[in-house]
Amino acid sequence: MTKAVRCIIVDDEPAAHYVLSNYIKQNPSLELVFEAFNGEDTLEYLKENDADLMFLDIDMPDITGLELLQKLQHPPKTILTTAYSEFALESYEYGVLDYLLKPVYYPRFVKAISRFFENGEPQEKQSTEVLPDAISVKVDSDNIDIPIDSILYTQSYGNYVKIVTSKRNYIATITTADLEKSLPSELFMRAHKSYIIAINKVDEVNKDYVLIKRTPIPIGITYKREITERLKNE
């Protein structure tokens, strides 16, 4: 049996730990061995312990993520996480594997860890290519995990999205464009500039709309051909 990849999370935000630790637990090829909320504790840990992969926040007090990388002679393979895209170019000067913008969504997380396997452990690559069980979105001030198979469709409200599930609805702080990136394309697609639908939840297709649980979802002109082709194969 192949040894799991030892992962550490370094971030001053508890919410980031919650999201990343849940994503790590969903991957049997990964093992979370340490969590730190600052650079000093990370330095102390890595003096005595080894890690294969580090999820590192850039914007931390006292020691930033980039300063931490400078202090480590032999840092673990690193995936940076931050809410600020302006650090992207500078971060790649440190040889990091990838750069994740917060909030981090599971499909993007999977792409990032696949780069680790491509660079260091190719025999494990296929274990990362799994569809997510849930997506994590911000609802009010909390990060909520919504099971993928419960989602029926989503509707855009500017910088918010209503996520309609089989049990309840959520108003999440995210754009439709970003949500689309986080949903597996094998299961979801755009029906309209404001709507994303779960392909296997469609009950009926008409000329200008699809029905999901008796709710008509409009079909945008630019999406008609793709919807017709995708649903023909379902």
Automatic annotation (TrEMBL):
The keyword Phosphoprotein applies. Keywords: Phosphoprotein. Residues 6-117 form the Response regulatory domain. It comes from the Bacteria. PROSITE patterns: HTH_LYTTR (PS50930), RESPONSE_REGULATORY (PS50110). SMART domains: LytTR (SM00850), REC (SM00448). It holds the Pfam family LytTR. Transmembrane segments: none annotated. The keyword Phosphoprotein applies. The modification 4-aspartylphosphate is found at D57. Residues 135-233 form the HTH LytTR-type domain. SUPFAM superfamilies: CheY-like. One of its GO terms (molecular function) is DNA binding. This is LytTR family transcriptional regulator. It comes from Flavobacterium beibuense F44-8.
